[in-house]
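Module 6 notes. Inverse folding takes a fixed backbone as the condition and produces residue identities as the prediction. Think of it as a translation problem where the source language is geometry and the target language is the twenty amino acids. Below is one complete input and output pair. Work through it position by position during the lab.
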């Protein structure tokens, strides 16, 4: 998450993929929108909110092919989880990054929180996937923690899976709660980035307690329980 990311390079990369996978009209729209946002000065965020909403119609639900993200672009998200990202996610990440360029940490945090609150579910997914690519990440933690409490599983998965932001930024309690929720929802915990390094004794205790409650109630225990406990054991032995 420390790799420098050039905003213009990200925009050009996103636009190139849109041209290939969504056609000329979508490419022309994204290029115009990115150019407009380069002149944006937060907190005047209306053009960004309009572009975020319209991107769903312009870029659609195209999934990124696995081999399209092998370009030499300095993305602080390696390996890039192309199987989890849609074309619209990449387009929106570029839009937000352009709008945030040069803004203060406070302006970025305020605008990001507003976007999360006002956006639809698809926009929320994109915003959460984009977290590792945005500036002033330390100021986005509170909004991300709040988003982790969502009842919408796809939105939660966008934050919890294939995303290095929680492991890199969340305090221990919030990260543990995120992992426990992923286990509860039956999500593949192997896709929680950085879990092995943060599988503490306290996380193991929380997961074990949850599994015991399930067993006592004669309910099935998710497979993720054993995975988390095994990682915690490996970490403890390595210390």
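Target side of the pair, the amino acids:
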């Amino acid at each position: 998450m420390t790799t420098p990311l050039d905003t213009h390079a990200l925009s050009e990369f996103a636009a190139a993929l849109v041209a290939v996978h969504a056609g000329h009209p979508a490419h022309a729209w994204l290029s115009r929108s990115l150019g407009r946002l380069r002149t944006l000065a937060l907190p005047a965020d209306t053009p960004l909110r309009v572009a975020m909403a319209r991107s769903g119609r312009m870029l659609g639900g195209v999934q990124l092919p696995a081999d399209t993200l092998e370009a030499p672009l300095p993305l602080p998200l390696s390996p890039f989880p192309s199987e989890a990202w849609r074309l619209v996610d990449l387009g929106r990440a570029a839009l937000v990054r352009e709008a945030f360029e040069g803004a203060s940490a406070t302006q970025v945090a305020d605008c990001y929180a507003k976007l999360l609150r006002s956006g639809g579910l698809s926009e929320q997914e994109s915003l959460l996937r984009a977290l590792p690519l945005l500036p002033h990440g330390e100021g986005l933690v509170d909004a991300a923690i709040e988003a982790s409490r969502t009842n919408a599983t796809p939105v939660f998965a966008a934050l919890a899976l294939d995303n290095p932001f929680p492991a890199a930024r969340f305090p221990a309690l919030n990260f543990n709660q995120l992992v426990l929720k992923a286990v509860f929802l039956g999500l593949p915990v192997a896709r929680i980035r950085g879990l092995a390094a943060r599988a503490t004794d306290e996380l193991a205790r929380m997961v074990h307690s949850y599994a015991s409650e399930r067993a006592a109630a004669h309910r099935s225990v998710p497979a993720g329980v054993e995975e988390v406990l095994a990682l915690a054991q490996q970490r403890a032995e390595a210390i």
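Reference fact for the lab report: The two ends are 24 Å apart (CA to CA).
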